[in-house]
Amino acid sequence: MLTILLFILILSFLIMIHELGHFIMARRAGIGVEEFGFGLPPRIWGKKVKGTIYSVNWLPFGGFVRLVGEDPTDKKRDVKNSFQVKSLGQRTRVVLAGVFMNFAVAVIVYYIVVAALGFKVNLPLLIPHHFAFVNQTQQVLVSEVSGGGVAAKAGIKPGDSIIDANGKSVTSIESLQRTIRANGNQKVKLTLENAVNNQTRQVVVVPKYSTAIKAPAIGVGLGELVSLNYQTIPQKIFSGFIQSYNAITYSFAVLGTLVSYAVTTHNITPVSEGVSGPVGIASITSEAIKAGPVSVLQLVALLSLNLAVMNVLPIPALDGGRFFFIVWEAITRRKPKPAIEKWVHTVGFVVLIGLIVLITYNDVLKLVRH
Fold first, then answer.
1. One-character DSSP codes across 246-269
2. Residue 44 to residues 40, 47, 67, Cα–Cα distance (Å)
3. Virtual torsion, Cα 28, 238, 14, 323, nearest 10 deg
4. Has residue 312 been placed in a domain?
5. Residue 216 burial by CB count (10 A; 0-12/13-18/19+): exposed, middle or buried?
6. Quick one: what percent of the chain has pLDDT higher than 90?
7. Which of 2, 34, 106, 229 could lock 304 by a disulfide, CB 3.0 to 4.6 Å apart?
8. Which residue segment(s) compose the domain that 193 sits in?
């Protein structure tokens, strides 16, 4: 129940911030706002103030802003306070204001996260990637621990990173494996760092011979972790922007790798596994709650960035799709035909709803399998 409530609160907050951006810029441009709603219809309550209905609706997911003349076929499209009669610059600012607000939220939250973590942020490394404008070091991440094994008895947990073994820095999986295999039945002192809060602790393990790999082992699955270290004053001053930029570029790099693999192998499974909808995000929210407040804040920042990026893409029915028509008008110096613009956005909306349904269905299947 806590996960569901927090998920709804986070999603609603980010969408309302997005819509607030549209609302503020519309008012500044003299565009009439017919309704500013919290949640999605049907309406529970509404009050009209200075021409705008402020409403609370039954479906508690985000909200919406309805502008005068936003629909290009609206009968009010030519009135003085219509969206359609405003200048290209004014309409551009209104359309992109939501994207700006989501990006601003991500930057602010990342400032808080980076400072709370002592200017060192750890990220699981799924693919090789260079993170810009910040110092980075590789670490070894414990991805899984065998029940009842050497590591489990020593208190090693998934999410720990191993940064030191017998006084020597661990910089790769291979270097750790060499140390473990060279010390069968001998004590090995490991320095662990919690990848979420950066707290360190030491444990002692005695590697035991594993028949599976025919070598001494401690019973862990390993992955790679990258630590982003904000060391210089400029890096700390711009840490919120740097972390946001790197989060976006890394997300695109991972998605690009998945798509490339799917095209090469004719197998879409990696893409479907790597993309999540509302159900998948709710599951991630549950894991973030277990990891602590800083992880929840990191999730908020990442979701806000994703909303900003998705909305700025030239996809019909989204802000980027509307901006595309504004750019088209600026280039051709002619307004698109209202009926065609509305048809494009309607088709885009239907396709988006279909994609959400498919992704949600896939999320449910993934939960059932696990």
1. HHHHHHHHHHHHHHHHHHHHT--H
2. 10, 11, 20
3. 50
4. yes
5. buried
6. 72
7. 106
8. 135-229
**Strand bridging mode 160-165 / 208-210:** unpaired
- Tokens 């896939």 sit at which residue? 362
Cross-strand bridge partners of residue 228: 121, 136
Residue 142 included in any domain: yes
319 to 55, 83, 95, 144, 233: CA distances (angstroms): 22, 14, 6, 41, 36
- First-to-last alpha carbon distance for the chain, in angstroms, is 20
Same domain, yes or no, for 139 and 99? no
Q: Cis omega before residue 42 (within 30°)?
A: yes
Give the Cα separation of 158 and 124 in Å (integer). 12
Q: Mark whether 6 and 111 lie in a shared domain.
A: yes
Tens digit of pLDDT for each residue in 94-123?
Answer: 999 999 999 999 999 999 999 999 999 998
Q: Report the alpha-carbon angle 366-355-276, nearest 5.
A: 35
Number of domains the chain contains = 2
